[in-house]
Amino acid sequence: MDLVDIIAILSGVTGMFFGVYSYLMTKANMVKSYFEADDSDEMRIARKNIYNDCSTSEKELFENTSFAKVCSHYHFYGLMLKKHYIPAWVFKSANGSAIIRCYEKSRKYIELRRKDDFYYSEYFEWLYNWVIKHRWK
Fold first, then answer.
1. Would you say 76 and 122 are in contact if contact means Cβ atoms under 8 Å apart?
2. Alpha-helical runs (H) found in the chain
3. What is the per-residue pLDDT for 67?
């Protein structure tokens, strides 16, 4: 084995190391991003507004912008989980309870929005079903 072969092997191993490291850092950054977004003042207020919502008409539901914020937030992270960009353990903790509660309070709003957009918040619904299925396993 000559020097060129050794350098080629070291380059390949180094490339593999940095590839794995980059993959792990991407997952860690996605988890950090999720927790920062989920704990933001805007999301805490939006969840609180949904928990306390007593809308009786479609107009009142659409006037409460908190539904759109929460649906968009969990739709995005549902997609990230389905595509394996964020680890599953993130949603098996207390966050699972928030997802369940928000989805159940938002269900009527989502159904109304789906009259115009059949796929509205489909990954939020997917995430809700995933949490129900996996949370206590």
1. no
2. 3-38, 41-51, 58-63, 66-82, 94-113, 122-134
3. 94
Q: Give the pLDDT of residue 53.
A: 86
Burial 50-75 (b: 16+ CB within 10 A, else e): beebeeeeeeebeebebbbbbbebbb
Tally the residues of the chain.
137
**Which span out of 15-19, 29-33, 86-90, 121-125 was modeled with the highest average pLDDT?**
121-125
**Spatial separation of the C-alpha atoms in residues 22 and 47, rounded to whole Å:** 33
- pLDDT at res. 15: 80
- CA dist 105 to 13, 46, 70, 88, Å? 51, 12, 11, 23
Residue 12, token pair as written in the block: 């390949």
Q: Which of 56, 77, 80, 51 is nearest to 66 (CA)?
A: 51
Residues 89-111, buried b or exposed e (16+ Cβ, 10 A)?
ebbeeebbebbeebbebbeebbe
Burial class of 28 by CB neighbour count within 10 A (0 to 12, 13 to 18, 19+): exposed
